[in-house]
Amino acid sequence: MITFSTASLYPYGLNRIFEISNKVGFDGIEVMLRSKNDISYLDTWDAAYLKQLEIANKIKIVSLHVPFEFEEDQSSFDRIIKLAKQIKTRYVIIHTPREDQVQYNEWVKKTIIQNRALAEKYGILIENVHIKTGKANPVFKNIDDFKTSPAVCFDIAHALRSKQDPKLFIKSLDNIRQWHLSNWDGKDDHLSILEEKEKFSSLLNIGPAECICLELCPKAFLDIQNQEEIIDVLQRTLAFIRKKNIQQNIS
Fold first, then answer.
1. Which segments within 60-150 are labelled E, that is strand?
2. What pLDDT score was predicted for residue 244?
3. Which residues are registered as beta bridge partners of 178?
4. Cα-based angle 147, 148, 149 (whole degrees, multiple of 5)
5. Residues 99-102: contacts with CB within 8 Å, 24+ apart?
6. How many C-beta atoms lie closer than 10 Å to residue 23's C-beta?
7. What are the φ/ψ torsions at residue 94 (nearest 5 degrees)?
8. Contact status, residue 13 vs residue 45, Cβ threshold 8 Å
9. pLDDT digits (tens, 9 = 90+) for 189-214
10. Closest Cα partner for 23 from 230, 178, 250, 202?
11. For residue range 162-185, what is the model confidence (pLDDT) as tens digits?
């Protein structure tokens, strides 16, 4: 299954992001839940509206990504789980804490790591974040750390930015359920993978996770206001991923 993150086209409203995703031909959507002070905050939390978008565009919401403010305040967790149940998502994505996020780290340990039944029931995946100079290290940063997680969403660009070998992680971890797929060019992450097809061919040839989610950012497109260009880039990217998946399945 190949899905598309709404975070990729953040300047657009959900209605147009769903329309574009349907035109491109993605199998599903990952909805980035927005923080209270963000544009489209209410739309991303409205189960009835999200269901309308699914029906109108004939595309399923496969995963929810918690809002960025979740790392500071986990009080919305029950609401997120309720939303996941209402729209019947497969996964809920949360970031690994950093070492200076003491309260968040304790919450993850108690609620997710030590409560595997809940994590498995709602498909809660812990996502790797990048190691960055000037920031505290992630609590989960190496292969052995992620082996303790019930399940993982492995972000390729975050690993590249951290100067880690994505192939080694993918081959070593059997609890990866979803990839976040994008490129890091040495400066920015969540960029297009089309400029480095050889690198991503070798990654995709390892064998896909249950779900590959294309998670880009507006910088991945030459002109974020040109919908024709956006659709063209996404269609070429999807065709490339699908071709590699077919080749891997045949081999």
1. 60-65, 91-95, 124-127
2. 77
3. 153, 211
4. 90
5. 99/136, 99/137, 99/138, 99/139, 100/136, 101/71, 101/136
6. 14
7. -125, 150
8. no
9. 999 999 999 999 999 988 767 999 99
10. 230
11. 999 999 999 999 999 999 999 999
Report residue 190: phi and psi, to 5°: 60, 40
Domain boundaries, the chain: 2-250
pLDDT surpassing 50 at residue 150:
yes
Can you tell me which residue has the tokens 């993150």? 5
Assigned token pair, 58? 């004939």
SS3 123: coil
* Cα–Cα separations (whole angstroms), residue 167 to 17, 33, 177, 208: 31, 29, 15, 12
Number of CB atoms found within 10 A of residue 201's CB: 15
Rg (CA), the chain: 17
Token pair belonging to 168 = 């080694």
CATH class of the domain comprising 2-250: alpha beta
Output the pLDDT for position 131: 86
Model pLDDT for residues 66-114, shown as the tens digit of each residue: 999 999 999 999 999 999 999 999 999 999 999 999 999 999 999 999 9
Instruction: Look at residue 246 and tell me whether its pLDDT is greater than 60.
Output: no
- As given in the structure block, the two tokens for residue 121 are 């029931």
Q: Taking the model in full, what pTM does it have?
A: 0.94
